[in-house]
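Tutorial handout. Part one gives the primary structure; part two gives the three-dimensional structure as tokens.
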Amino acid sequence: MGGGRITSALVAGLCRAEHQGAIVVHDRNLKKLRALERDFGVAVEPDLQSAVAMADTLIIAVRPAAVAEMLDDIARCAGASRRLAVSLAAGIPLKKLRPRLGSRVRWARALPSPICRIGRGLTAVTFARNLLGPDRKRVRKFFEQVGPVLEMAESRIDAFNAAYSPAHGYHALTILAKAAQNTGLDPKVALTAGAHALADAILYWRQSGQNLSDLLHEAATPGGTSAATLAAMDAAGYMRVIEGGLAAGIQQARANARR
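Part two.
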């Protein structure tokens, strides 16, 4: 339900994983539907009633501000009250979702990363208390097709969502490359240096299994240039800046919940 960016990423990842089962996308924007049909060969359905009738699982993939209207529209469709429903909307808690479609709908929330497009995106999931084991397994297996799945309590999911966005990587790379360029490096060299600094370090950490603090100590030798660089960043309030950014993300999620 919704043919935007996260749907496109999820569909791409599912197709890459050779998902066994029909995928039907509903959106009122015919241009979006035509693009998804052309690019991935999925079925598209501009009529909401028909889309709901075809589904055994409803994935709500619209912006948080549009969730209430979408669920109200779905509630008016025949047979909508006996489905498994998964919301991808950040910040909208289960207690706000459940009343919209009635007590027979079984609810979960999932927050997939756009990186699921290449089958490497982490997805956070949380379940309504009355969602039984088979449905929980079904949700986990669905998202495991596009990357690892991490289950957590709903009370933690907003903080997790603020911390794990790939936007952190893009933002850090942009800032690092720009700062390097300002020191006199060629823009292409600055971007390449920043990309390798971030990507190679994280790849080595993940594959080596070493402790992060040990790797940091090894890379930033006392008296060396890396140690001086990091010390200056810390003294300038690097930690406070990151904490402030995460707090703003959590605050936005809570604002979404009040809609």
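Part three, for discussion. The beta strands are 24-25, 43-44, 57-60, 84-87, 106-112, 123-127, 149-151. The longest helix spans residues 187-208.
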